[in-house]
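Dear colleagues,

As part of the handover before I leave the project, I'm documenting each prediction I ran so the next person doesn't have to rerun anything. This entry is a single chain, and its sequence is reproduced below.
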Amino acid sequence: MRIGFQVPVTPIMEGITDFHNYIMFYLILILFFVLYFLYKIFKKFVFPFIKAPYHKKPRPSNWDYNFWYRKVYLAGNKFTHANQLELIWTLIPSFVLLLIAVPSFSLLYTMDELIDPLLTFKAIGHQWFWSYEYSDASLFPGKNLLLDDPIIEFSSYMINTADLLPGQFRLLAVDNPCVLPTQTHIRVLVTASDVLHSWAVPSFGVKLDCVPGRLNQIGLFIKLEGVYFGQCSELCGVNHGFMPINVIAVEPSVFLNWIDSKS
């Protein structure tokens, strides 16, 4: 059982994790600040009122001359008609929002910036499976370019529970996982053939909507080898929960051998 994010393996996911931890610092400060003032309010106004005998509690007949009038109403006046206080509780939250906005814009720009990719990878969502295309795999550095190199494309279906092999994960294992190289700038294109889907891999920090008739893209740079899983994150029909994503990240040399085996 894991609380929090999966292990980040891309610069994007590392940035998301760091930004989350950065924001949590301010959230904890604000939480304790609000809880402290709530405690002081209850201690000063609510608890004494609750503990007071019934005949001493304020009623409409004696409200104007009661101790509670002086304690509650007059004390509250200092807070509801204090220009300095209103200025403080406007400027401090604005300053906190500014501290959060600056790294947020930086992260958004980093996610949107697409460095010249060495490989284009396309994911197409269907009801209810994924298909993948490597349109320029033959141009990958180190690949012996042949005139008849085809576009590599295949479909990826979830393996039924009855057909799982030892070590495979239920509802996550697929018959044809996609293979991507590490330490390589990759352009990920996504679309759909029927309804809305979403290609999402948490360890990559990628969650991209697949819209019919439209291409969305994002840059990907995988740092570590491994097997990574994701799922469709857009409600796409009755079998929405049964179209997993399985990505195997390997060294570029291994990726070249895999391309040759698929060509």
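Residues 119-262 form a domain with the Immunoglobulin-like fold (CATH 2.60.40.420). The mean pLDDT is 84.

All the best with the project,
I.
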